[in-house]
């Protein structure tokens, strides 16, 4: 099975690495430490450990409050919404509100074809002078 990208959130106590680089909730580096030490800090301050960068050596984790995790999830969701998905074609069509009936019918047929092909369609109508 391909490795699925985990959602941003607390990893709880499931940490597969022995040595971690830990950042506190204010963004300051606490340096490299053993997994048990990081869990102790997490419990002492009632925080959650979140994996930031897994591909580094050692992997980077951050201590965060539940509110910080929620805000980061919202930011990531908003960012994901803004960028079109790879492989999805977006078509854009622009015309005047004074368009002739026949031209409008042709453009409507074109839009229907694009939608059948699963393209995203953006229509802009400009006001006639």
Automatic annotation (TrEMBL):
Protein's UniProt keywords contain Protein biosynthesis: yes
Cross-referenced Pfam families: IF3_N
Protein name, UniProt field: IF3M factor
Organism ancestry: Eukaryota, Metazoa, Chordata, Craniata, Vertebrata
Organism per entry: Platysteira castanea
GO cellular component terms given for this protein: mitochondrion
Boundaries of every Translation initiation factor 3 N-terminal domain copy: 11-78
Record keywords: Initiation factor, Protein biosynthesis
Gene Ontology BP annotations: mitochondrial translational initiation; ribosome disassembly
GO terms assigned for molecular function: ribosome binding; translation initiation factor activity
InterPro entries from the UniProt entry: T_IF-3_C_sf, T_IF-3_N_sf, Translation_initiation_fac_3, Translation_initiation_fac_3_N
Family per similarity comment: Belongs to the IF-3 family.
Gene (UniProt): Mtif3
Domain of life, source organism: Eukaryota
């Amino acid at each position: 099975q391909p490795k699925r990208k985990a959602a941003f959130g607390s990893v709880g106590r499931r940490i597969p690495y022995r040595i971690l680089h830990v950042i506190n909730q204010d963004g300051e580096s606490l340096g490299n430490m053993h997994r048990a030490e990081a869990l102790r800090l997490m419990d002492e301050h009632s925080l959650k450990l979140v994996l930031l960068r897994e591909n580094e050596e050692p992997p980077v984790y951050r201590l965060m409050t539940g509110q910080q995790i929620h805000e980061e999830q919202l930011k990531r969701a908003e960012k994901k919404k803004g960028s079109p998905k790879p492989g999805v074609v977006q078509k854009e069509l622009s015309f005047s509100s004074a368009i002739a009936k026949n031209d409008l019918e042709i453009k409507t047929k074109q839009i229907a074809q694009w939608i059948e092909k699963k393209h995203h369609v953006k229509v802009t109508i400009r006001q006639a002078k």
